[in-house]
Specification:
Layout: E1 2-3, H1 10-21, H2 40-52, H3 56-63, E2 68-74, E3 80-88, E4 96-101, H4 115-118, E5 128-133, H5 151-164, E6 170-174, H6 177-188, E7 193-198, H7 212-220, H8 225-241, H9 243-250, H10 252-261, H11 263-277, H12 285-296, H13 307-313, H14 320-323, E8 331-336, H15 346-349, E9 355-360, H16 368-371, H17 373-384, H18 391-406
Helix pairs in contact: 5-6, 9-13, 10-11, 11-12
Family: Belongs to the peptidase S33 family.
GO molecular function: epoxide hydrolase activity
Keywords: Aromatic hydrocarbons catabolism, Hydrolase
């Protein structure tokens, strides 16, 4: 493990400036709004700001204030990868090791808003040692050159990272692909992953054979207004917002040419999701362009991040569907946000595992740790704190640390 400083080469910044100055924009229908995708006026405004006002070096310096490291991880059957991660140890005795996993189009940066609070704690408030990697093919981790790097390989990477830091037992938090990677990690390494908290819930309606009690409860309880609104939100996403997933899950290479060669194309592709998937979060120009720049300047390039969709979609054994099923040996915490891209009734979320913590928030969308860091922190403190459903996990982790210390 070595300290890591992000330093994008000057030639990449020069190339970006040149490409922005020669960008060609499409036309747009009158009064198109967001119906057809990212509006032309928004993209032109952001490109102008990118050219004239945005300062990557300033943002880079801010990001480098995070305690970042890189280490080498050997994934079985694949080449050794350089894995970048943020790692902040708490000074509180008995702090809980927490693996935070991002998704697409997010990054390790999402942990930055919750990091200061999570590492603090006391008698009644649990503290955490926080580990937030850039997944392979994302951010400042390297990418594989071999086919077949599926969710189990992402899980193996994260698990081996935690082991390399001395954490044989830990807990996890994730949304988007972070939900799926941490779920598979718990499935494959249940003696290490003792509990998981997720903020993207994709469970299915309980059935009589799989969950008879939940099925009867679901059958007898009418859907409330929140749940009906959730069905509408989910239907909107399926019908109007999921085209990206089909493209990235079938022909990521073809799309990759556009995202790699055109920073404006990359901006529009990601900005649309930031707008549509958040709950009216007031994105600033600097925030938007920093999120996009992390992909533009990523070690493996922006096309590499798309491949997780293809690999998961073509994995019939450990693909996305497996992460929605019951995983019984890992205690589960679920956070329901009204503007998530998939909003399900509580009974559906309970089909995914032994739910020991459940929260329902009045606002918030897909990027929970960024939009509602207060909610994520409150959930984790409640779930693992005194009287929380995963309080017993904390004692198990501490006993394991005691054994390791004696050895």
């Amino acid at each position: 493990m070595e300290p890591y400083t992000i330093s994008v080469p000057d030639e990449k910044l020069t190339s970006l400036t040149d490409k922005l100055s020669t960008a060609t924009f499409p036309d747009e229908l009158d009064d198109a709004g967001w119906d057809y995708g990212a509006p032309l006026a928004d993209i032109k405004r952001l490109v102008k700001y990118w050219q004239e006002s945005y300062d990557w070096r300033k943002q880079e310096a801010e990001i480098n204030k995070l305690p970042s490291y890189r280490t080498k991880i050997q994934v079985d059957g694949f080449e050794t990868l350089d894995i970048h991660f943020v790692y902040q140890k708490s000074e509180v005795e008995g702090a809980i090791p927490l693996l935070f996993v991002h998704g697409w189009p997010g990054s390790f940066l999402e942990v930055s808003k919750i990091l200061p609070q999570l590492t603090q704690g006391g008698t009644d408030v649990p503290a955490f040692h926080v580990v937030a990697p850039s997944l392979p093919n994302f951010g400042f981790s390297s990418g594989t050159k071999k086919k077949g790097f599926k969710l189990p390989q992402y899980a193996e990477t994260c698990h081996k990272l935690m082991l390399s830091l001395g954490y044989s037992k830990y807990v996890t938090q994730g949304g988007d692909w972070g939900t799926m990677v941490t779920r598979i990690t718990g499935l494959l390494y249940p003696s290490s992953v003792l509990a998981s908290h997720i903020n993207m819930i994709r469970g299915s309606a309980p059935t009589l054979t799989s969950h008879p009690f939940l099925y009867l409860q679901h059958l007898l309880t009418p859907y409330n207004p929140r749940e009906r609104a959730g069905f509408a939100r989910t239907a909107w996403f399926q019908q109007e917002g999921s085209g990206y997933r089909i493209t990235q899950g079938t022909k990521p290479q073809t799309l990759g040419y556009s995202l790699s060669s055109s920073p404006v194309g990359l901006l529009a592709w990601i900005y649309e999701k930031l707008h549509d998937w958040a709950d009216e979060y007031p994105w600033t120009e600097d925030e938007i362009l920093t999120w996009v720049s992390i992909y533009l300047f990523s070690t493996a390039g922006p096309a590499a991040s798309l491949r997780i969709y293809y690999e998961a979609a073509h994995d019939t054994k450990m693909g996305r569907a497996r992460t929605e099923e019951w995983i019984g040996r890992v205690k589960l915490g679920v956070a329901h946000f009204p503007r998530e891209i998939s909003v399900v009734p509580k009974s559906w979320g309970r089909t995914m595992g032994p739910v020991v913590w459940e929260s329902e928030w009045e606002s918030g969308g897909h990027f929970a740790a960024w939009e509602r860091p207060d909610a994520v922190v409150k959930d984790l403190r409640g779930m693992f704190g005194r009287g929380g459903g995963a309080e017993g996990v904390v004692e198990e982790i501490r006993k394991g640390e005691g054994v390791r210390a004696r050895l």
